[in-house]
């Protein structure tokens, strides 16, 4: 039986990746926007708390199981910034281009460009689920000033993986999903749901 699942996100890039990643595991996935669920508040200082907030919000408004993703890029020379604030690093309205430009400017004076993407996924069976299923993933790279590639979303044109000689935005979807913080987290989550 396929289980209907709400993706508690409004981010088109994430939704595309989840559809690719979940297509094989027996879930029929629906973005919260299909149910007119508005964006949830993300008031917390940790990824996991924000993801739980988003998952419960979507489950409450739809009456269905929900999966939320809270993720971001953490730059070592900046003490882990922008981190949970990655989506609104350059303020409102949220803009990938403005966020990337601010991050590259903030890093200009730092020699250490190392960074990692981090993703927490939270799955709740219903809004008040006392046992949320939680998984995480991490993907190491470095920030480069000159954008490369047109795939992915967010900071991907500036997120360089030295071992591949490419930015995340230069990878195919399959290549990115095989390596990414989100792909790792989702595979771990699916194992826990088995
Ligand atoms: O694979 C990725 N490739 C590039 N950038 C990425 C990735 N994964 C997260 N990111 C960045 C985008 C955004 O600046 C922030 C997520 O913020 P986050 O609040 O989790 O998502 P969001 O507000 O865009 O959508 P929503 O909360 O509705 O899921 O990290
Ligand atoms: Mg968000």
TrEMBL record:
Keyword Cytoplasm applies: no
Binding site for substrate: 9-14, 71, 153-156, 176, 181-182
Binding site residues for Mg(2+): 41, 70
Cellular component terms (Gene Ontology): cytosol
Any one biological process term the GO annotation gives: purine nucleoside triphosphate catabolic process
InterPro entries assigned to the protein according to its UniProt record, in alphabetical order: dITP/XTP_pyrophosphatase, ITPase-like_fam, RdgB/HAM1
Catalytic activity: ITP + H2O = IMP + diphosphate + H(+); dITP + H2O = dIMP + diphosphate + H(+); XTP + H2O = XMP + diphosphate + H(+)
Name under which the protein is recorded: dITP/XTP pyrophosphatase
Organism: Rugamonas fusca
